[in-house]
Design goal:
The protein is α/β, with parallel strands linked by helices. The chain is about 40% helix and about 15% strand. The protein has a single domain, classed as Alpha-Beta Barrel (TIM Barrel).
């Protein structure tokens, strides 16, 4: 793993001064042994030194590989492929406000996506999750309560992930394979928990920004920066900001089609990566 220059990241504005370290040494963190028992009897793993702020930082840190392997867990930033494919991803749903309209836009363009759902929302709106599954989209795990997994113990992370797995399984009959940690925050405990459950992790290469950009501004920015194997983060749960992302979606889909891109799910993107087909 390349050594991260903290100063370079600070200069690039990608690292807050309060962040202790970036880059990932997950194997070391995952091998750190059992967490100490705190005064209340709860096992608490302190925030590990290896901590990923989000995909942009790891990319700025000079990572050449788009998929890394942390023990048995693969961490996807973007697909290592020259095929003109992109993975559209939607976090935080399902929601009554945004999910159905998002599905309508994807359906109209014949596009497929991955929805990283929050377990408590799945239990509220199982019909929307069933529709996502029935229309060929992938369901991923975005924790049960949208918790910051990087500050939880391994047992707490396991509980968050298992509850969402169970909710999706109950709604669709299919168990999620990929986790997107809320806020893109990871820790050794979170990686170890994903390893125990057999999940891979997906971060992202591009983001629907919503704030400060019009729908067309978002479309232009995304089409300008997307490369083969890109992963776009958007949301189908949350407040009125989502209206911007939703309004941008048809234009983004049309633009991708014009540029010869095909949409794939995150698991399909992982399968395209050479390293993802060996050793597992
Ligand atoms: Zn989220």
């Amino acid at each position: 793993m390349p050594t991260t220059s903290r100063r370079a990241l600070l200069r690039a504005g990608l690292l807050a001064a309060s962040v202790p370290l970036v880059g990932i040494s997950a194997q070391r963190a995952a091998d750190a042994g059992p967490a100490p028992v705190g005064p209340n009897g709860v096992r608490v793993r302190p925030r590990p030194a290896a901590w990923v702020k989000h995909g942009r930082i790891a990319r700025a840190a000079g990572m050449e590989r788009e998929v890394d392997r942390c023990g048995s867990v693969r961490v996807l930033w973007g697909g290592a492929t020259s095929d003109r494919v992109v993975a559209l991803t939607f976090d935080d749903g399902p929601s009554q406000e945004w999910t159905a309209a998002t599905l309508d836009a994807l359906s109209a363009a014949g596009a497929r996506a991955t929805f990283f759902v929050v377990g408590r929302n799945v239990r509220r709106f199982p019909d929307l999750v069933r529709r996502q599954h029935a229309e060929g989209h992938e369901l991923g795990n975005h924790s049960d309560t949208h918790a910051d997994l990087s500050v939880l113990s391994e047992e707490q992370v396991l509980a968050e992930l298992r509850a969402t797995d169970d909710a999706v399984l109950a709604a669709t009959g299919v168990r999620p394979r990929v986790v997107r940690p809320p806020f893109g925050h990871l820790s050794g405990a979170a990686l170890a928990a994903c390893g125990q459950l057999g999940h891979d992790i997906a971060l992202w290469t591009s983001c629907m920004k919503e704030i400060g950009l019009t729908p067309q501004g978002n479309v232009d920015a995304l089409l300008g920066e997307l490369r083969p194997g890109g992963v776009v983060l958007s949301h189908d749960g949350g407040d009125q900001r989502r209206a911007v992302g939703l309004a941008a979606l048809p234009g983004l889909l049309a633009g991708l089609q014009d540029q010869g891109y095909r949409t794939v799910t995150v698991s399909e993107l992982l399968a395209l990566d050479r390293s993802a087909t060996t050793g597992r």
